[in-house]
Every structure is written in C-alpha cells, then in structure tokens.
Design a protein that fits this description.
The structure is a single chain. The longest helix has 32 residues, at 173-204. Strands 5, 6, 7, 8, 9, 10 and 11 form a seven-stranded antiparallel sheet that branches. The protein has a four-stranded antiparallel sheet with strand order 2-3-1-4, covered by helices on one side. By secondary structure, the chain is of the alpha+beta class. α4 crosses α5 (127-151) and α5 packs antiparallel against α6 (156-169). The chain is 41% helix and 20% strand. The protein has nine helices and eleven strands. The two termini are 19 Å apart.
C-alpha cells in the first residue's frame, strides 16, 4: 500500500485468487447491545456454509464476515442475522451512518428516574415500593429470558430477577424495589457509556474522506494527507491536530475526549506527544509529525 493511502473500511477485500476468492464484508448490527447478541451473531454466521471467519464489535455494532461469495452473498448473511431480529444490514457506506451522533435514550432515562423517585417516595407511600419492584423486574425478566435463549445459560439478569421475586415472596418490598431500581440504573449507565464511546469513535472518524488542512512550520497550508514523518506543523486554538506528533515548542490544552474519553483538556508542552484527531482548545504549539495521517491513532479507530 502506498504511503498515505488509507485502508478501505467498507470495500470487500479479496483474500485469495480466482473467481472463488474470499471477501470480507462489513455488516451493521443495530440491535447488538451486549455480548449475548454478539454470541448469537457469531453462531449464526459460523453455521452458514461458505463463511470462514467472523468477528463482532459490540461497541461499534459491527460484524466482519470473511466468506465465499459464490457460496453465500453478503445480503444472505444479513438476512440470516435478521431471522433473529438483530437489525442487520450490509454496511455499504458506513461512514455516513457511523458519523451520525447517537442521541440519549430519554425514554429509558425517564423510566430509570421514575423508578428511583418511586423508591425514594416508597418509604412514605409503601404501596409505591411494589410498583417499583414490578417495574424493575419486567426488563430483568426480558433480558434474562433473552440471555437464556441466546447463550443457553443464566446470566446476572436472572440472578437479580430471582432476588426481586424472592424479596417480594418474603414481603420485603423495600429490598425488592431497591434491587429493581438499582438494576435499571446499572443497565442505563452501561448503555450510556457505550453510547458515548460510539459517539467518540464517530467523532474521531468524522474527518475520514474529507480534506483536512494543516499549516506547516513555514506557514504553508497543505493537505494533511501529504504530511510525512518529520514535518513540523502549527496548531492554534480551535484547530484539529492533523496527525500524531511530538510538541517541539509552545504550550496548549488538547481535548482528547474523542480518543480517550477524558472530559477535561490535557495540557501539552515541549517533548510531549499529541494524537491526530484531537483538538487544541487554547494555546499554540508546533508539532513534529511522528506518524502519517493514514497510520495515526485516529486512523486505527476509523478502521474499527
């Protein structure tokens, strides 16, 4: 691959010669939210004749299948996954879909808030504790049944469901409501963390396929893809770091949230490394390029 050339994200990649060569297809799995769906997707695809290898990225809701197109086509793989209601589709143009920011699930947030409020008020109005316990048990039962069906084993949802039902059987409504509300909060917190990770990945790859400009040390403005190791570039407040490098002069606060999730800007000075795709929130630095844009940290995320 020539210097500066990017690894294709969506194109089928030939793995062998001739008309029966294997290809690697990228599939979106919109209904994959935990390891249970990933396990189901792997089992489903592995069971299809002509599929050689499968990998699933739960966070990105993406599956990669290496298969023989003369035996099974890409759409057939998606159809097989959709028989299990996984919301699969062939990712013909994932950049457009992946770069759409996923919003907060306000319905789930409202549900969790209602349970927690009911739990707080339940010690004043005891009848609310039963409502909270039942409300928390419903999604636990749903997830426990789905986990038992997909993974053929009981998971933590089944354990917590037993705790809720056991407490109700013992007429300990306070304990039952607490377990149900805490379980709902934990489920929402996990989903929110995954949502933020997916949005961070999308933000890191937002510049993929678009022209990114960089100012070299002599003031020349060039395409960031043309930078080579050893070039010196200038990054000012509000500008995106074009690629990985080391600060050779100046100081700046760098927003690395798109790569690391760190919410606060990190101060960088001479001798410290910076990553492509991050943003300078204030300051001024000169950076010596240590990796081209096709090989930097953001490029690795774009390949996920």
């Amino acid at each position: 691959m020539a210097a500066g050339e990017k690894t294709p994200l969506t194109r089928d990649v030939e793995l062998g010669g001739g008309g029966k060569a294997a290809v690697r297809t990228r599939l979106r799995i919109d209904n994959a939210c935990c390891e249970a769906e990933a396990t189901l997707a792997k089992k489903t695809l592995h069971a299809i004749a002509g599929v050689d290898k499968v990998s699933v990225n739960v966070v990105g809701r993406i599956a990669y299948a290496t298969h023989r197109p003369h035996l099974v086509g890409a759409q057939a793989l998606a159809d097989a996954l959709n028989e299990h209601n996984l919301g699969a589709s062939v990712a013909a143009a994932p950049e457009a879909a992946d770069n759409v920011e996923e919003p907060v699930d306000y319905k789930e947030l409202a549900f969790v808030a209602a349970l927690l409020l009911g739990l707080a008020l339940g010690y004043v109005i005891p009848s609310l504790l039963v409502v909270v316990a039942v409300g928390g048990a419903v999604p636990l039962a749903r997830d426990a049944v789905r986990g038992a069906w997909l993974q053929k084993r009981l998971d933590v949802n089944a354990l917590m469901l037993c705790a809720v039902l056991g407490a109700l059987a013992l007429k300990d409504t306070g304990e039952a409501a607490t377990v149900g509300a805490v379980a709902a909060f934990a489920r929402f917190a996990e989903a929110e963390c995954l949502r933020r990770v997916r949005n961070a990945l999308a933000d890191a790859s937002a510049s993929e396929g678009a022209q990114v400009r960089a100012t070299k040390g002599d003031g020349t403005v060039v395409d960031a893809d043309s930078l080579i190791v050893g070039d010196v570039v200038i990054v000012r407040a509000g500008e995106r770091v074009p690629c990985d490098g080391v600060v050779v002069s100046g100081k700046a606060a760098i927003d690395e949230s798109a790569l690391t999730g760190e919410p606060l800007p990190v101060h960088k000075a001479k001798g410290e490394s910076v990553s492509g795709g991050t943003v300078a929130t204030n300051g001024f630095v000169k950076i010596k390029v240590s990796a081209t844009r096709a090989e930097d940290a953001a490029a690795e995320l774009r390949r996920l």
